[in-house]
Task: structure prediction
Amino acid sequence: MAATGSLYSQVMEKIKQKIITGEYPTNSKLPNEFELSKQFNVSRVTLRKAIAGLAEDGLIEKIHGVGTFVRKPRKVKRIISSASAESFSQTAAKAGFKANAKVIKIKKVETPENLKTTLKTKVALYVERVYAVEDEPVMLERNYFPLPRFTGLEKTDLSKSLYQILRRQYHIKELKSRDMVISVALASLSEARVLKKSVGFPLLLLQVCVEDENNNIVHAGKHYIISDRYEFHV
Result:
């Protein structure tokens, strides 16, 4: 992955946006090196680094003697380089996907025993959503939000970006991961039904705890992710 701010990473991002918006459609052939380097006003060395990075991310494929072609990426990739929390929608968009969220369940519940110390409340708002990419379920998230702080969250349109809602409606300036544990879990019956996989299918289990700029807990919970559609880069 390109270093943030480097010239070739900027070129990567510009080409990626053209792919995402459809200016460079899937399976189309990219302009040649001379045309691209002239278009982005960079040297061929810089352009080749950008092309190599995009190929590594699965967005393009170089075929020797034929050219470079746009490809449909298979996996959503998340780069873990800081404590900053990132929504699934953001992660998917960076990888060239458009993610859609569907609320499965939202209700006030007694805070689970294992989260009472963390959330510091006896009552929480439980939000269960599934994220799909290209109509294929990829992640099931089960989050608990401390009450009364997040009263009214259940009345918002949670098919939209949750973190944007939190920033706008609850005036949260920064979201960061206090702790994150990644492990492997086998899909239970309920998880298999939502993610449209067989019982026992291997899932990535992400245990999260997100806090704001004042170190107050925003939410904690578990995210179940289809292992062949998502990968972490540390």
About this structure: The first strand starts at residue 60 and ends at 63.
